[in-house]
Write a structure and sequence with these properties.
Elements (H helix, E strand, L loop, with lengths): L3 E2 L2 E2 L11 E8 L10 E3 L3 E3 L3 E4 L5 E9 L7 E5 L2 E4 L5 E4 L2 E5 L28 H35 L1 H8 L8 H15 L8 H7 L7 H16 L8 H15 L2
Parallel strand pairs: 1-10
Antiparallel strand pairs: 2-3, 3-7, 4-5, 5-7, 6-7, 8-11, 9-10
Length: about 260
């Protein structure tokens, strides 16, 4: 019985180099009587052990893999061998030869031969749309900047509030518009010393003030003078040449340096 053409899925005809494996698939209508032998086939190919697979439609295919075992000097057309497959139904399937374009391992500019295409250039990387990414970056950068600005503003407001509530800063506000000879000015400064020391401060307890607020040590002579003059102001002649405003301003500057 003469051979009939087989239904064959051939590999792509271009773009191969030495070491590549190409797959040839033959549709089986009946079981083969024998499978083609593995081994070298001609100059260019080494046939691997064939196998039978089944596709999603239930059709059975004979899968034959060939490995290219030679490298040409330039682009060359080689032919996968023609062969025949005998089946148990008595039918012989004819598999025709199939041309492949094989290129050298180096060099990309080649000329097509025999109507086959030359080696194709590397496929370019897919273009990723960057607009959504840039938009997300802008949104999150703006959110971060706003958060940072709010945090800095809160920190500045807290420091400003704390600075206003410092004992001598508060005393300076209470003394505003009041003269040095007014009892309110002297009393405001006394309250500032009491808040700084955490207790009522008198001449006899000045040591506790300097133990708790060592940063006032440089102004110690003037502070001691204030308490002496205060005793004379409230319990003596009622007059003093001491400027409580000047002393309070100096105390506030020292306080601000120690508590920025």
């Amino acid at each position: 019985m003469s051979a009939v053409p087989a239904v064959v899925e051939q590999p792509r005809p271009f773009g191969y180099v030495v070491g590549d494996i190409v797959e040839q698939r033959v549709l089986l209508q009946a079981d083969p009587t024998d499978l083609p032998r593995a081994g070298r086939v001609g100059v260019w190919f080494d046939r691997r052990m064939p196998s039978i697979s089944q596709d999603a439609q239930g059709r059975r295919w004979l899968v034959v893999d060939y490995q290219l075992i030679n490298a040409p000097q330039g682009l060359t057309t080689v032919n996968m061998p023609a062969w025949e497959l005998a089946t148990k139904s008595g039918q012989t399937l004819s598999i025709p030869q199939w041309p492949l374009s094989v290129g050298p391992l180096t060099g990309r500019t080649v000329i097509a031969q025999g109507g086959l295409q030359a080696l194709r250039a590397d496929r370019p990387a897919p273009i990723v749309p960057t607009e959504p990414i840039a938009r997300q970056i802008e949104i999150w950068t703006g959110a971060f900047a706003l958060t940072l600005l709010i945090w800095i503003a809160w920190l500045a407001w807290r420091n400003w509030r704390d600075a206003r509530d410092r004992p001598f800063a508060r005393a300076a506000r209470e003394m505003r518009g009041v003269g040095d000879d007014a009892p309110q000015a002297w009393q405001a400064l006394h309250r500032a010393f009491d808040r700084t020391a955490g207790r009522v401060v008198q001449t006899a307890t000045l040591v506790s003030l300097f133990e708790r607020a060592r940063y006032l040590e440089p102004l110690r002579p003037r502070i001691e003078e204030f308490f002496r003059c205060s005793a004379d102001y409230f319990f003596g002649s009622g007059a003093s040449s001491l400027s409580v405003h000047a002393l309070c301003n100096d105390l506030r500057r020292v306080e601000r340096r120690y508590h920025p």
